[in-house]
Amino acid sequence: MLAATEIYQEEILVSASRLPENAATLPLSWARVNKDELALTGHVHITEAMQRVAGAWISRGNGQESLPSLRSPVLTGAGSCGAFFMAADGISLRAPGFCNINQLFDANTEQAAAIEVIKGPATSLYGSNALHGVINILSAAPAVENDLSVEAGPYDYYRAKYAYGSSGDTHGLSLRANATTNGGYKDDSGYDQQKLTFRHDFTGTEWDISSVLNYSNLNQETAGFIKGYKAYADEDLKRQNPNPEAYRDAWSVLAHSRASRELGDNHQLILTPYLRANDMEFLMHFLPWQPVEENGHRSLGFQGAIYSELGQWRWINGLDADYTDGWLKEVQADGFSPNQPAGVHYDYQVDATMAAAFSQFEWALNKLELSAGLRYEYSRYDYDNKTGDGPACAPEATACRFYRPADRKDNFNNWSLNAGGSYTLGENHQTYLRYANGFRAPQATELYRLQAGQQVADLDSEELDNLEVGLRGVFSDKLNYDLSLFYMTKDDVIFQDANRQNISGASTKHQGLEFNLGYRFNDNWYVNGVGSVARHRYDSRINLLGSSGDIKGNDIDTAPRHFGSARLGWEFNPESVAELEWVYMGSYYLEPDNKHSYDGHTLMNLRVSSQFSSHWRGTLRLTNLLDEDYAERADFGFGDYRYFVGQPLGAYVEVGYSFGR
Fold first, then answer.
1. Do 343 and 336 touch, CB atoms closer than 8 A?
2. Distance from CA of residue 329 to its chain's centroid?
3. What is the pLDDT of residue 7?
4. Using CA atoms, how far apart are residues 356 and 322, in angstroms rounded to an integer?
5. Sign of the torsion angle spanned by Cα atoms 280, 285, 289, 290
6. What is the pLDDT of residue 367?
7. Residue-level pLDDT at 661
8. What's the pLDDT at 10?
9. CA-to-CA separations, 120 to 55, 249, 402, 481, 540, in angstroms, rounded
């Protein structure tokens, strides 16, 4: 069952270098949600699992929609998703330049081997988008299993999960699939979702090859914001859906093969080609004129690296490449005004190329370990406008919202650097110091989906500098701790100004403390918790859309200064556990002027899982145990408070059967 404490000396992390390595001595801030924690959490939405990670908040929208936050505010806007590198087995879920804020629903997190998180800019193996951090979902390695589970919950929620695996001397396979239907808490809402992960491992005399196919499909009837101050606590409003016509349909495929072989005694070659495809269509219900957007892309990519072990040195040198054919179309069925007319607003195609070279080394001597890395990345966009150049409105429009730039090419050159060191204090404690620089190139939507007559978006890549110091370790195999103090500055931030034009040049500042603590009282009882105390502020005088004046020094909206969670667990027999979870969300501002805020909330959840026999197991999950009124996400826009409502007390029952025991 669940380990009560994570003994960091025994913890293995894959995401930093794409190979398993001892996480204790890594001079960076990381977290890992393992398969046992994922199984017990049984998350309906990814936010429930990510509550176990300090500094991470995946703000839940309706259904499977989300807005990510990782050592950052919850970022919104056309390219805000570009601040996070979200991956499956180290491969970005979406192509560089084509991120989507909801892209975590593409990954089979429900049946992953683990979710690994790197906070702040990652190592040189990661490029554009690894700005505030990395969320990497690891596929399960083949093992002998044949398990089926079914689950039921409130509001016509049903889910089935199946896992099959086999493992031999040279071949192993793993198949994990799940299907969910959810009637939705809100009126005229709900979704159907299917996910599949297939993995085949081959071990040969020279080559080892691991091939993975990920597939996901989502058909969602989306519920929009409800409006009005604290509307989430109004019994007459909280289940209403102001946008019963809203929907989101999305599917994705990501396939890769990872081939590795030894080159002599000291070197290993790893080659990873991959294919990526996805399509999405949704009603933009959050805009009064409600257009429909269709977007998608097809990608062919490659990762290659040579790992060298040279005595006290470990050296990684590699190349990454990605070619993507992407497109976007926005159409409005009915005219809203002369400035938001019916018809095609945007229709474009972008051929994007990314190429990068990187080098990362580690040097260890006794209790000291040093590391450093350098990456160069080139990005090029070839934009082709498929509709008329210029405004999408008739000549009589006075302030046309939509502008289609003429065909053009844009390219970006970026460097990133990281350097750090860790020192072992005694046998069970490590301290580290790290500097890292990260970047993200502008996203295609920021460059080519222009508004208010802007003919060209002359944008620079965003850059972030991170300095952090950390301390982690274990006392007497009972208490473990992981503390990280960070200071980050971000420059050339892309934003939309008061004239609705996309420009670069803003600066923000981020500083705080993240902690992870765990304590085992005895063989049966444990407690663990994570938390973040941080401030995220505007650090320049900018004429930001939605603000009324100088906002330098103000908190960035949707950036709680403190939040976290804690769990008390009782392992009442060797394969059974009960866990009571406390989730705390502090107050936060809703707009740049810091005049409107959300008070925050506190929730309790209870989970009990038990193995009844060699074949049968069961899990009971009670969410929002105290039936609190709260908002999953609060916002202020178009002159009103807006909320995604949190669900009341809910009971989920899962029964599983193992055919192979």
1. no
2. 25
3. 42
4. 9
5. positive
6. 93
7. 61
8. 65
9. 10, 32, 35, 19, 21
Q: Is 569 exposed, middle or buried (0-12, 13-18, 19+ CB in 10 A)?
A: buried
pLDDT of residue 496: 87
Distance CA 510, CA 72 (A): 7
- Strand 133-138: give its sheet, edge to edge: 29-34, 114-119, 133-138, 84-88, 91-92
**Cβ pair 293, 279 in contact under 8 A:** no
Is there a contact between 638 and 596 (Cβ–Cβ < 8 Å)?
Answer: no
Q: Which residues of the chain have pLDDT under 70?
A: 1-10, 661
* AA identity, residue 314: R
Distance CA 416, CA 373 (A): 8
291 contacts: CB under 8 Å, gap ≥ 6: 283, 284, 330, 331, 332, 345
Distance CA 184, CA 168 (A): 43
Q: ∠ CA 176-179-183 to the nearest 5 degrees? A: 160
Amino acid letter, 149:
S
Which residue in 466, 468, 474 sits closest to 430, CA to CA? 474
Whether residue 328 contacts residue 444, with contact meaning beta carbons closer than 8 Å, is answered with yes
State phi, psi for 230 to the nearest 5 degrees. 55, 35
Q: What integer pLDDT is reported at residue 550 of this predicted model?
A: 85
Instruction: Choose among 52, 56, 33, 48: nearest CA to 560.
Output: 56
Look at the chain and count its residues: 661
What pLDDT, on the 0 to 100 scale, is given for residue 132?
A: 96
Q: Which residue has the tokens 């941080």?
A: 534
In the block, residue with structure tokens 């934003």? 495
Name the residue among 373, 533, 377 with its Cα closest to residue 441: 377
Phi, psi of 254 (to 5 degrees): -135, 120
CA dist., res. 616 & res. 612, Å (int): 5
Q: Is the four-CA dihedral 301, 377, 107, 21 of positive or negative sign? A: positive
CA gap 443, 423 in Å, rounded: 39
SS3 105: helix
Lay out the sheet containing 226-227: strands in order across.
226-227, 640-645, 631-637
Residue range 349-378, pLDDT digits in tens: 999 999 999 999 999 999 999 999 999 999
Gap between the Cα atoms of 3 and 565, Å rounded: 17
Question: Which amino acid is located at 185 in the chain?
Answer: Y
In angstroms, the CA 197 to CA 218 distance is 15
C-alpha 632: how far from its chain's center? 17
The secondary element (H helix, E strand) that includes residue 38 is: helix 35-41
pTM of the model as a whole: 0.96
pLDDT of the residue at 660: 75
Residue 536: is it exposed, middle or buried by C-beta count within 10 angstroms (0-12/13-18/19+)?
buried
- Domain over 8-614+625-658 is classified CATH 3.40.30.10: no
Predicted confidence at residue 8, as pLDDT, reads 44
